[in-house]
Input
Amino acid sequence: MSLTTVIEGTRQALDADPRNGAVQFSVTHELVAGSNTTVDVRVREHAFTVDEPPTLGGTDTAANPVEYALASLGSCQVVTYQFWAAKLGLPLESIRVTVEGDLDLHGFFGFSETTRAGFSGVRVHVDLTGPADPARYEELKRQVDEHCPVLDLFRNPTPVTTNLAP
Amino acid sequence: MSLTTVIEGTRQALDADPRNGAVQFSVTHELVAGSNTTVDVRVREHAFTVDEPPTLGGTDTAANPVEYALASLGSCQVVTYQFWAAKLGLPLESIRVTVEGDLDLHGFFGFSETTRAGFSGVRVHVDLTGPADPARYEELKRQVDEHCPVLDLFRNPTPVTTNLAP
Output
């Protein structure tokens, strides 16, 4: 199905009932028995692994949690470019995104209470090709950066509750 | 290597030179040619796929970007529980984390400019087992929630620059 068809179908469904826009996602994570840092992840019918490199106590069987966070941003940028190019009627021939993040381990380890645990800064580099006027791709970028769900997650606070089962 | 050994080794390295705490992560993402939403992700020597379900124009070969964002949070919680249990000398026999996120598609599609593109709310449920006093696991939870890098990313704004190659 073309993305234009998906966009129009979604618009009709949400016009019919705005509550159709509310979606919920759920993911489960379990430490592999006997491991320090290897995590089995399940999302619907999909499964993958998260681990840490040896310098962080792991066996490096997969990328680590903060790398997955950057990957969620980079892949969300790719998909949002695709949808918004379709919405703007702008041809996009290829797209490649690199995401870099800086983090200071003093935070995670609690060696400094003034260093945040998360990224201090993140850089997104987008390389795309297409035949239209470069100014139109700049307009595309503005729309993408306003509507990319994971960029919103990175840039703005999200309410999170944490609960420990008794 | 035990996590206690990793923590002590890291402490010594960071005491020797605080700049040793500064780490950088980098991830690349490329749209699979001919696909609408399938993204090849590369992280160091690791590779995985991100896709969308058919309702969002994809072929559902993998979890989608916002599900990976939740997975980065859930797996980071698991790893942070492991490290801080080691740091506090608290035995942890098993841990399982479920993360749920609510999102309204009006934001991503630009059908409403007052709806944020990202999650409106996220819930983390932690189930763990261990022989110590429950109050000690509540103290562990407090430390984890202060030091988990991806929880910090979700709860607080992170500076992100985006750049479109000319």
In short: Chain B touches chain A through 119 residues (CB under 8 Å). Chain B is about 40% helix and 30% strand. Residues 24-62 of chain B form one domain. The longest helix of chain B spans residues 65-88.
